[in-house]
Specification:
CATH topology of the largest domain: Nucleotidyltransferase, domain 5
Number of strands: 10
Structural class: alpha/beta
Number of helices: 12
Bound molecules: 5'-O-[(R)-(carboxyoxy)(hydroxy)phosphoryl]adenosine, zinc ion
Oligomer: single chain
Distance between the termini: 32 Å
CATH superfamily of the largest domain: ATPase, nucleotide binding domain
Largest sheet: 5 strands, mixed
Shape: globular
Strand order of the largest sheet: 3-2-1-4-5
CATH architecture of the largest domain: 2-Layer Sandwich
Radius of gyration: 20 Å
Strand content: 15-25%
Number of domains: 2
Helix content: 40-55%
Length: about 325
């Protein structure tokens, strides 16, 4: 079993079919993300449709990632794939593809946790941090703070008790009559709005490092209902800006607490919500060194899976074939 050569990474945990070629030194030689788009009209991802589209797209996306890097399968040193958490049907497509490639080519396989991928995305930034550092991962499915002790080892300090931050963006956007996915649309709708117009809660009385966005969601629901349809539409920018600010400040409040509690003075961000412009700007004033991946590495991609794989064990063919997808991150958190 050979390991030399770049890592071919595959990620199919949700609705993006992704492949990337990542060098052993962390250089991203290519990263292809095929967003399925077909889910927008349903207001969310339909698991079965996602899985079927992955089947259609995955080989094309892998070929494209190799071609863009000017490489072929002969150059690949090992395969990396997202094992979970995510939609099981979607994950299985990536896993089956990765297993077949590894078996056919006699290559080792690295199973990567999706959240570990979001954490590792930051190692692509110029001048990446060496652990230890604090990391905030905020995506559509998860939101947590981690003390990254070593590249492949981290301790979760706090996590959301209900919705993930991205989910809150998506639900808020829906209440404001915006489309899906809500994060980027709400950010756009907030442009020119007054972030202080509505006093939405940040769950500030909740102690500790856990997050909760349920109260915020309810507050927006009641505000929109009380304003009425016409007035809500007229004040959409203010509502969006205030809602966005509440999420960002709820995240920052826990980040500040965690920095204080741990004494860490370096922070990284990851996950789709780390693409948010207000969050990216505000972390700059925390008084600590910060690394935030470029936007395309915050949202789902395979390059982050390849980056994480650099520090994880390589499975030989027999063990690789036995790998099963997992839907939730509970075993990890
Ligand atoms: O990490 P990701 O691509 O997928 C998951 O692992 O969930 O995160 C997707 C989430 C969605 O909820 C989306 O609305 C949110 O990230 N998101 C944003 C922005 N871009 C994506 N939220 C706020 N502002 C953005 N610019
Ligand atoms: Zn993700």
């Amino acid at each position: 079993m050979s390991c030399e050569g770049p890592i071919l990474a595959i990620e199919t945990s949700c609705d993006d079919t992704c492949a990337a070629l990542v060098g052993e030194d962390g250089t991203i030689r290519s990263s292809v993300v095929s967003s399925q788009g077909v889910h927008d009209r349903f207001g969310g991802v339909v698991p079965e449709i996602a899985a079927r589209h992955h089947v259609e797209l995955v080989n094309l996306v892998v070929d494209d990632a190799l071609a863009r890097a000017g490489a072929s399968l002969d150059d690949v040193g090992r395969i990396a794939v997202t094992q979970g958490p995510g939609l099981v049907g979607a994950l299985l497509v990536g896993l089956a593809t990765a297993k077949s490639l590894a078996a056919a080519r006699g290559l080792g396989l690295v199973a990567v946790d999706h959240l570990h991928g979001h954490l590792a995305a930051t190692s692509a930034a110029p001048d990446p941090f060496e652990p230890p550092f604090l990391a905030l991962v905020a995506s559509g499915g998860h939101t947590f703070l981690a003390h990254v002790v070593e590249h492949a080892r981290y301790e979760v300090l706090g996590q959301t008790l209900d919705d993930a931050a991205g989910e809150a963006f998506d639900k808020g956007a829906r209440m404001l009559g915006l489309g899906y996915p809500g994060g980027p649309l709400l950010q756009h709708a907030a442009l020119g709005g007054d972030g202080a117009a509505f006093a939405f809660p940040r769950a500030e009385r909740m102690r500790g490092l856990d997050f909760s966005f349920a109260g915020l969601k309810t507050a927006l629901l009641y505000t929109v209902r009380d304003l009425g349809e016409q007035e809500s539409a007229r004040r959409r920018a203010d509502l969006a800006a205030s809602f966005q600010r509440a999420i960002v400040e709820a995240l920052l409040l826990r980040v500040e607490r965690a920095l204080e509690a741990t004494g860490l003075d370096r922070l990284t961000l990851g996950g789709g919500v780390a693409a948010n412009a207000e969050l990216r700007e505000r972390v700059g004033s925390l008084g600590v060194s910060v690394r935030v991946p470029p936007v395309e590495l915050c949202t789902d991609n395979a390059a982050m899976i390849g980056l994480a794989a650099r520090h994880l064990p390589v499975l030989a063919a027999a063990d690789a074939l036995a790998l099963e997808a997992y839907a939730t991150g509970e075993h990890l958190l």
